[in-house]
């Protein structure tokens, strides 16, 4: 099938000029939006700029707005879009460096701000034995650890759209992920870090982040669970309310009716 790709163009030397380049492309079976962009760059316009690395939904580099919805270009086949015209734009709610390349420094700065690492209460005391963790303890946070830092949830979030200072769903979900880890002692410091203006209580629970997340992280759930933890801690009830059962696991957003990939060639 032949598709028309409308690709948003932007060059930092002429920031007032934004326009769309249109290309026709004969799509092979299983061709993804990223495959199409690579083909266009190799065969039609070498100046087309976009970011990618793994081509398998793991590195988080290829987030783009595809027909108005933030998605991973490598995880989206042209055929599943159900439209002959495919419009590709850079992720919203991030500055644009060039064409489809978003500037993600703010995403990573906000991520760093929630102390996204295991913190031990006595960092200078070496453990005397392996720090064990039960399967239930692991499952209580494992879903939130699937985040690939693609920034798609931030692009989908209406609060991020109206308040650029808002920390956003990616970082807040990771505040919960690390605080929920039974090996971590950093929850009090993280609760202090997020209990400020433009941070966790600015989440209005629109849920758009969880709907858009390509890895099934469900950041909206993580934010609500962390708010609950903060409220329980403020009332001295955290130990009594600490969840012991594992969460129901939400898998990645499964898409129905996707054509199968082409047959293996090697
Ligand atoms: S929570 Fe999901 S959408 Fe947001 S950065 Fe992580 S993987 Fe991407
Ligand atoms: S290229 Fe790595 S997630 Fe798409």
Q: What features would you describe in this structure?
A:
This protein is α+β, with helices and mostly antiparallel strands and 266 residues long. The chain folds into two domains: 2-102, Beta-grasp domain (Ubiquitin-like (UB roll), Roll); 105-122 and 132-241, Fumarate Reductase Iron-sulfur Protein, Chain B, domain 2. Helices cover 31% and strands 14% of the residues. It is built from ten helices and seven strands. The strands form two sheets. A five-stranded mixed beta sheet has the order 2-1-5-3-4. Strand 6 (96-98) and strand 7 form a beta hairpin. Helix 2 runs parallel beside helix 6, helix 6 runs antiparallel to helix 7 (187-194) and helix 6 (169-179) crosses helix 9 (219-234). The longest helix is centred in the last third of the chain and has 16 residues, at 219-234. The protein is elongated and about 60 Å long. The two termini are 25 Å apart. The structure holds iron/sulfur cluster and FE2/S2 (inorganic) cluster (FES). Residues 52-55, 57-62, 72, 74 line the site of FE2/S2 (inorganic) cluster.
Bound molecules: iron/sulfur cluster, FE2/S2 (inorganic) cluster
| Rg, Cα atoms, Å | 21 Å
Strand order of the largest sheet: 2-1-5-3-4
β content, as a range? 5-15%
Q: Which structural class is indicated by helix and strand composition?
A: alpha+beta
Note poorly predicted spans: none
* Average pLDDT, all residues: 91
CATH superfamily of the largest domain: Alpha-helical ferredoxin
- CATH top level label of the largest domain: Mainly Alpha
Helices and strands, in order, run as EEHEEEEEHHHHHHHHH
Number of helices: 10
Oligomer: single chain
CATH topology of the largest domain: Fumarate Reductase Iron-sulfur Protein, Chain B, domain 2
* Proportion of helical residues: 25-40%
- Total count of strands: 7
N-C termini distance: 25 Å
Q: Count up the domains.
A: 2
**What is the CATH architecture assignment of the largest domain?**
Orthogonal Bundle
């Amino acid at each position: 099938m032949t598709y028309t790709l409308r690709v948003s163009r932007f060059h930092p030397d002429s920031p007032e000029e934004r326009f769309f380049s249109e290309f026709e492309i004969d799509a092979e079976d299983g061709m993804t939006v990223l495959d199409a962009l690579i083909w266009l760059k190799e065969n039609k316009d070498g100046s087309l700029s976009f970011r990618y690395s793994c081509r398998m939904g793991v590195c988080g580099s290829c987030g783009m707005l595809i027909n108005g919805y933030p998605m991973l270009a490598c995880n989206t086949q042209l055929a599943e879009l159900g439209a002959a015209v495919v419009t590709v734009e850079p992720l919203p709610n991030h500055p644009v460096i060039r064409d489809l390349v978003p500037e993600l420094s703010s995403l990573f700065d906000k991520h760093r701000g929630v102390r996204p690492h295991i913190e031990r209460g006595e960092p200078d005391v070496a453990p005397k034995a392996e720090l064990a963790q039960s399967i239930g303890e692991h499952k209580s946070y494992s879903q939130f650890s699937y985040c690939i830092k693609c920034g798609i949830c931030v692009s989908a979030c209406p609060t991020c759209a109206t308040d650029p200072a808002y920390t956003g769903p990616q970082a807040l979900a990771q505040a919960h992920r690390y605080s929920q880890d039974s090996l971590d002692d950093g929850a009090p410091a993280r609760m202090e870090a997020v209990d400020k203006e433009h941070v966790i209580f600015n989440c209005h629970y629109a849920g758009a982040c969880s709907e858009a997340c390509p890895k099934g992280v469900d950041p909206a759930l993580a934010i609500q669970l962390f708010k609950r933890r903060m409220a329980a801690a403020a009332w001295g009830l955290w130990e009594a309310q600490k969840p012991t059962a594992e969460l129901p696991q939400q898998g990645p957003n499964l898409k129905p009716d996707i054509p199968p990939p082409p047959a293996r060639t090697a």
